[in-house]
Amino acid sequence: MHKHDQALIFESSTPGRIGYSLPEMDVPVTDIAELIPADYLRVEEPGLPEVSELDIMRHYTALSKRNHGLDSGFYPLGSCTMKYNPKINEVVARFNGFAHLHPLQDESSVQGALELMYDLQQHLKEITGMDEVTLQPAAGAHGEWTGLMLIRAFHESNGDNKRTKVIVPDSAHGTNPASATVAGFETITVKSNEDGLVDLDDLRSVVGEDTAALMLTNPNTLGLFEENILEMAAIIHEAGGKLYYDGANLNAVLSKARPGDMGFDVVHLNLHKTFTGPHGGGGPGSGPVGVKAELIPFLPKPIIDKKGEEYVLDYDRPQSIGRVKPYYGNFGINVRAYTYIRSMGPDGLQAVTENAVLNANYMMRRLAPYYDLPFDKHCKHEFVLSGRRQKKLGVRTLDIAKRLLDFGYHPPTIYFPLNVEECIMIEPTETESKETLDAFIDVMIQIAKEAEDHPEMVQEAPHTTVVGRLDEALAARKPVLRYQKS
Ligand SMILES: *Cc1c(COP(=O)(O)O)cnc(C)c1O
Question: Based on the domain organization, do 325 and 367 belong to the same domain?
């Protein structure tokens, strides 16, 4: 790294240089030592750099440029739907009437916020085909857990206490088995067949009186639409189980098909994916859960209801599983999703689906000659390639991902799903232009050629980033989270 890199502010400290100037203090100073117990007093100087305001500006600006974000470049991270988040969402979320509310305000003084939440629930009911929606869960996995708790409460209310197992296909999102475990269920895995879809014979062989639910990710993590959903629904319902739809990635289904019409009893959505809430960096998210009528009594409370012209919070829900989040959910993300749905309208949402699927299929077909395509089928919003061919040349999928950094791209999701060797999972999203897709495709083709002609170029990547290959195991086990003076 260059010695004069602006980010090395700690090393470029000049004794006596300051970034502020304040008038002399003209009030009597109490001896700090009298107010603070001796144990809490610093014995050594904190070792902060002595720099000007301009130096510190450049320091933080330089650091911010080291991040790759959606607003700085293409981000085809499969399963994460890194689509453009329209700035109108931000404008609306910052309205004083939304941003300056306090969650403990009286209902009568937050009617506008309650109306927005109520209306958002109506839109999500319409989009999913469900009978009621809660906005409380704070993320997708939280929605899954909430949905499973609802299913458990339903079974228990029928005195049906032996349903301890949740069936999860091997092509499901990784949070599904994790949520089932956290909710106290045992996870049973069903295999995919050679078409990448749930193997119905395998499903039939594990379904029984102990089946609480089947959790289905659709389109599954291979980007494929599960074609036998109605048959799966019949198998599970005949056995008395419930059907859970992981709708985190609704991009390929939105306004074309509805989980409620397919027979699902519970669905969760990720407003921070499909409905343009900003995400990455740990949140906040929003994972609303929709349910069919039978499950409404168990929804988290309070429920937002409309009585005449007034919006109310209904706490009188004796069968509710209780609150799953303090207050009412991540309201700011719900405002953004509401703004998105209203500004797109039904036609706009239909175009989202069509373009998301078109972009993914275009990219898949153009890359298919250069990378192995494990499932040669029409894909939905995303698709998977396999780096098997490149691996034989000594270039692993991890190397390909690292090489993409040299071209300013965020790599796709790699090594997931687990049922594809050297998996590369690409989700272009509908908000990218054909020019952007073509530029990325060209780079992927160039990397495939490099793997054949000079593999070390890929094996040693990245070459242009501030840091090269990190020891990822060490970084996870012994992270250095703050600057340490050498
Ligand atoms: C992202 C995702 C989840 C988990 O959502 P979080 O908000 O990250 O908890 C669950 N299922 C699928 C299919 C996803 O893509």
Answer: no
